[in-house]
Amino acid sequence: MTTHVLGDTGVLTGRSLRHILRSPDTIITTAVTPVALMLLFVYVLGGAISTGSGGSYINYMLPGILLITIASGIAYTAYRLFLDMQGGIFERFQSMPIARSSVLWAHVLTSLVANLTSVAVVVGVALLMGFRTGASLGAWLAVTGILVLFTLALTWLAVIAGLSAKTVDGASAFSYPLIFLPFISSAFVPTGTMPGPVAWFAENQPVTSIVNSIRALFAQQPVGNELWIALAWCLGLLVLAYAFAMAAYRRKIS
Amino acid sequence: MTEAAIRVRGLEKSYKELNVLRGVDFEVERGSIFALLGSNGAGKTTLVRILSTLLKADAGTASVHGFDVGAEAAEVRGSISLTGQFAAVDEVLTGRENLMLVAKLRHLADPGAVADGLLERFSLTEAGGRKAAGYSGGMRRRLDIAMSLIGNPPVIFLDEPTTGLDPQARIEVWQTVKELARNGTTVLLTTQYLDEAEHLADRIAILHKGTIIQNGTLEELKRLLPPAEIEYVEKQPSLEDVFLALVGERAEEAEEKEASR
User: Fold this and answer.
1) How much is the pLDDT for B249?
2) Which residues in B have their CB inside 8 Å of a CB on A?
3) What is the pTM of this model?
4) Domain extent at residue B173
5) What is the DSSP string of A160-194?
6) Number of domains making up chain B
7) CB–CB of B106 and A96 under 8 A?
8) Average pLDDT across chain A, whole number
9) CATH number of the domain within which B177 lies
10) What is the arithmetic mean of pLDDT over B12-33?
11) What is the pLDDT of residue B1?
12) What confidence tier does A254 reach under pLDDT thresholds 50, 70, 90?
């Protein structure tokens, strides 16, 4: 059966991508909140925020906005997975002679495509609002790589939520803290302005290192150690989430 | 080959304190229709889920098409098809896309042709291009069963295939099931409708509180009761007869119209 893993995953990914194409509102909805936040921060709050970096505020906060986009986008992955299991089509797939893991991988790949599309929409709006970067192709690729890793890590978290949720609301509720996490990081204001314990948390949580790395790449500055910390967080989270998701999946199907 | 298509021995399954199956034994002959009759909660669905490798039994053995459901699950999945209690169709896709999806997953050569053939056979050709979300209950069930037939699996499980269907759609499902058995497919169906078992099945097993309490042909089951006494009763048409006579073929057209709206 393993010989068909790729083919089966391809067929099932085509199916869920078609779901997104037929209801593109999920991509729009994913992009709307970050865009609204961007407008709020740039045109309302941004004037009063001093980042100490001298550059435009939108350049400063775009990396955090991109992470919020992904954190809200993956809720749809949990939601779609949950609906599949509710509707009985999941059982149909499980009782067919197909590679069982391809059912999950299809959702993961679809999540990747959907989230990168939402991210592209948000970057497009940011460019209209004055975001500028002289980043080289290599730097863009590095940014994309980090975002792909971050999306994969959060997507596998979403898979755990989708597999173990009892209700539709439960399937997507897990993403709220993730969406909130960038606010207690260097995404919108420098961590130096926060009181001691909060600053400590902000400096040592994954979002800060990821945001700083992307910001440095966009600003053509050296990324230094931050990049490795960011990659370690993403990979560590990815491996853990994948292991737990697979364990949850095996419990579900056996 | 005379080996039974399905063989179940001492099958047990419990959920925490609840013993759903407490030692189930039966065999299903190749190419026959076997009805598992039982009230809600008798364990029918649990049994079907074990036989279709979705659930592991706590004790006992079961083989389908000669393969053990525990040790040779992949081979079992290659020989069966499951139509669950709730129509497992993708509502976002069209009827045709649903059929093509299954055909591709079964690695068939020409998924489009397979889909068109089944749409024709299940009188869904006209509806084939529409999203399944807009189908009526009967159409959805027909699509569901059509999806199950792709790849001609030798054993088919139908879990309460007519629950929630109107009388006409029910008769259509019955005709499909009979046709399948005529072509040599083994069908195991569960039902809570006595007339359905009476109508379709070569053998009927009654599942009650987790065990099979009777298993036989309709004639054998009838013989369990004292011989019939002759009573003279005025033959009244049943409400179903009246309904079907009044509605006739028009219901099908109406259904198509309903769905195309």
Assistant:
1) 58
2) 52-56, 74, 77-78, 80-82, 84-93, 97, 101-102, 104-107, 147
3) 0.84
4) 30-46+79-260
5) HHHHH-SSHHHHHHTHHHHHHGGGGTTTTS-GGGS
6) 1
7) yes
8) 88
9) 3.40.50.300
10) 88
11) 45
12) low
